[in-house]
Amino acid sequence: MLTKPSILVVENDAAMVNRCGRLLLSRGYKVRTAESSKEALHFVEKYRADVDIMLLSLELPDLGAMSVIEVLHRIKSRILVMAMSSECGEEAIEAIHAGAYDCIRKTFTNARFWTKMNRVMERFTLARHLEILKKERESVLAKDSCDEGTILTILDSMADMILVTDQKGNLILCNKAVVESGLLSGRRLGRPVEECLKNKDLVSFMMATLQSGQPGRPFGHHEVCLLETGDAKLRAHINPVINGDGVIVGSVALLHDMSQTDAMNQVKADFMSMVSHELKAPLSALLMQISVVVDGLAGDINAKQKDLLGKSKEKTKGMIALVNDLLDLRRIEEGKALLVIEPLDMGEILQRSVDLMSLSAQEENIRLEVNIADDLPLLSADRSGMQAIFVNLVSNAVKYTPSGGRVTVDLNMAGKFLRIKVADTGLGIEKADLEHIFDRFYRIKSEQTRSIGGSGLGLAIVKGIVDAHKGTIHLESEVGKGTMIIVSLPLEK
Amino acid sequence: MAGEKILLVDDDYDFCEATELLLQARGYDVTMAHDGEEGLEKVRSRQPDLVILDVMMPKMNGYDVCVVMKADPELSAIPVILLTAVGREMFKTSYTKQMGLMTEADDYIAKPVEPQELVERIEALLKEE
Ligand SMILES: Nc1ncnc2c1ncn2[C@@H]1O[C@H](COP(=O)(O)OP(=O)(O)O)[C@@H](O)[C@H]1O
Ligand SMILES: [Mg+2]
């Protein structure tokens, strides 16, 4: 759509400016004014796109109208110049030579003004249409260079299989991966899919997609399913092909061979259970053995022995925490599949998680304050994930705050987000470390943190869980003052 | 403590040995078994007041032992604590909860367990009886 041209009136005679202005405004044109050629050029330089037509007096006092026309010409401006002169003599001809479109005598009648103006506006419209046509032609050319051959080559280089039908269900395109997979029963392109494809499920899914949008079927239905053909397991994404007018003109199936992905997942799962059993079983025994001895249940021990064993008990618990962290991280990295989403009372989970840590806060003489807003809505999320967020953030705050400090936890709503804010009056984090603390195993090494235990996995776990819930993390910290972390989780996905 | 009979079924001998000391110190009468089949046999022969069942064990796993016990009217009243290496004690994962429900275990504890925690859970279950 073309908008009305905007017009700059360059004239130092106020009466003339008024007259032009009133005429143009009466027909809804956008009008601006300049009193001198300098001002006009300044305006053009600053708002070039905002001037389409310039009504330019040839009787300006300063540099003169000619210099304006010359400058416009030099910068290849699209602005159309309508000169205005009392005489319309030599100077008018000169102006037109220099690039002005036309000249109008200042003693014009309204009718005369509009005849002249309409012509220049027509010219403006034509020029704009030409530009639009040129742009369209360029984009068509760009499309042309992506011809069918190019597209087929691109499709053939994909490892995944792709199949396309027209709206009648005839197979019209498939890539090399399809041919090599043995899915085809040898029929040529252009025949109905049921003749071309061996897999009946795939055929019926593709045909069903073509009916999407019809009564009883959601429009633009996207189907994801698992297909078994021979010994291959394929994950299929089947979609209708919808043209620019919203009409279904075919269906497209993208097939991914799962066999290899499955094998990898199996290795990972095996590793998981290996770690959990092979490490946790001996650690369980170790913890129990040490505890029993420390508590004197295996006979008396002296103070020195008790002290040493107490320390090895702590070390053992550190190792257990590390194994748990590793397993959590694995779980998160394996993705959402392992999250169990259920409506949760976050206030209750927060309170319980904080209870776990209130003792260590007390021992360190740290005030642990929890504010949970009333009437919080339930959040659909993974319970153990939420616990992990609370436990990690609050335990960090407590761990990295010297005794006598304060840790505040707020849980409330901010718009459509549930907001968890954990603030402490602790050590704070240097700018250089900020970008790394969510990395796995990253721990800040300083005189103050040396004696503090940890695996460097806590925040990586928090980040993983927050990402999986489509939430965000915001962190502010000042060295020596404290740290504040805000986690926002969307109520709706 | 009136010397209640506790059956501890776990394939880790070291864990059993230490846990036996813990439970004996609390006045319980402890018997041990080291795989699921032996465990089930001893449930029948000893009629314990409570069973602690490790999940991952040779021959018959803890879930199966628990399911058999809960299906047997003569054994179903005996409280069972499942010890699982999946998940962590702090976070009762939906998985462990589900397994607990499916097997009808009376409690489930993630390994490794703090001795004090184990004792408290045992006391709580025996008090219910
Ligand atoms: N509240 C905090 N105040 C100061 N430093 C923190 C805070 N939270 C985390 N950090 C820093 O970020 C690092 C990474 O944290 P995290 O991933 O939880 O690992 P861990 O606590 O096991 O060291 C910590 O080692 C610590 O140096
Ligand atoms: Mg931490």
Cross-sheet strand order for the largest sheet of chain B: 2-1-3-4-5
User: CA-to-CA gap between the ends of chain A?
Assistant: 38 Å
Helicity of chain A, in percent?
A: 40-55%
Radius of gyration of chain B: 13 Å
Number of strand elements of chain A: 17
Largest sheet of chain B: 5 strands, parallel
Radius of gyration of chain A, Cα only, in angstroms? 38 Å
Number of strands of chain B: 5
Pick out the low-confidence regions of chain B. 89-94
Bound molecules: adenosine-5'-diphosphate, magnesium ion
* Apparent shape of chain A: flat
CATH class of chain B: Alpha Beta
- CATH architecture field of the largest domain in chain A: 2-Layer Sandwich
Oligomeric category: heterodimer
Number of discrete helical segments of chain B: 5
The name CATH uses for the topology of the largest domain in chain A is Heat Shock Protein 90
Strand content of chain B: 15-25%
Description:
By secondary structure, chain A is an alpha/beta fold. Chain A has 4 domains: 6-129, Response regulator (Rossmann fold, 3-Layer(aba) Sandwich), CATH 3.40.50; 148-257, Beta-Lactamase, CATH 3.30.450.20; 262-333, Helix Hairpins; 341-490, Heat Shock Protein 90 (2-Layer Sandwich). Chain A is 45% helix and 22% strand. In chain A, helix 10 packs antiparallel against helix 11, helix 12 runs parallel beside helix 13 and helix 13 (383-399) packs antiparallel against helix 15 (458-468). The model of chain A has no long low-confidence stretch (mean pLDDT 84). Chain B has a 5-stranded parallel sheet, sandwiched between helices. Chains A and B meet through helix 10, helix 11 and helix 13 of A and helix 1 of B. The site of adenosine-5'-diphosphate has 22 residues of chain A, from helix 13 and helix 15.
Please write out the topology.
The complex is a heterodimer of chains A (493) and B (129).
Chain A: E1 6-10, H1 14-26, E2 30-34, H2 37-46, E3 53-57, H3 65-74, E4 80-85, H4 90-98, E5 102-105, H5 110-144, H6 148-156, E6 161-166, E7 171-174, H7 176-181, H8 193-196, H9 200-210, E8 223-229, E9 232-242, E10 248-257, H10 259-294, H11 303-333, E11 341-344, H12 346-363, E12 367-372, E13 379-382, H13 383-399, E14 406-414, E15 417-424, H14 431-434, H15 458-468, E16 472-478, E17 482-490
Parallel strand pairs in A: 1-2, 1-3, 3-4, 4-5, 12-14
Antiparallel strand pairs in A: 6-7, 6-10, 8-9, 9-10, 11-13, 14-15, 15-17, 16-17
Chain B: E1 5-9, H1 13-25, E2 29-33, H2 36-46, E3 50-54, H3 62-71, E4 80-84, H4 94-103, E5 107-110, H5 115-128
Helix pairs in contact in B: 2-3, 3-4
Bound molecules: adenosine-5'-diphosphate and magnesium ion.
